[in-house]
Amino acid sequence: MLDSVYTSTNSVFDDAFFRCGGISGTFNQQNQFLNYWIRDCCLTLSKGNVFRFDKGGSIHVQNGSWSAANATSGAIKWFYMPVSNSNNRSAAQLSVDSVRFEPKAANQQVIVNAWGTGSVEFSNCCDLSSIQNASGIEFPLHQYTGQNPWGFGGTMPSVRYVNHQGAGYHQYDGAAGKRGGFTYDGCYFWRGVNGDMANAVSGTAPALRWSSGAPRYSFQRCDNVAQTEAWV
Fold first, then answer.
1. Is 128 helix (H, G, I), strand (E, B) or coil?
2. Model confidence over 34-53: pLDDT tens digits?
């Protein structure tokens, strides 16, 4: 458990502030370090990864304010999940509740996730502070890469955003999703000072984008995105 942990804005983590899995030996080691609780932390930094879980895990985060020092510091990932071993996909659960994120550049990301199954949920979180830079709507703040661990097509976690306040966009890459997908419920994506409508997946500055394949998705009861879905 990490409770009320603080890092300073000039912190630089060459590997990660906290890492589990793949540190030494084969990737089949350290796959029993599964359960984590992180709450009421102030995790700020200038560069690097904050949490890196090469082996997946059951990770529960509650409350906090996590910020980048400035726009020129360097690349940041608050959650980095490069799972590459199907043996560990049975432990792939991340829940994040009531955390404020403050990325300040396109290479400062809330999450980069390569799970092929499991679940990810952000509830009552906010990364609207990135609009301090007007180009923040073009920041890929949440990035997911589908996998094919069982040989029948693209799979990804069940990803759910509830009451999420966002500024940038969410990126999906990999094979077309046949399992898992994105659900947005009661979310808001900032696209202008007048509360402009955000496009879900097409048009100017859409909230969800992909460069290869296509995810399954659903936008429901969102503040400024019309209800739409492609859930097959």
1. helix
2. 789 999 999 999 999 999 98
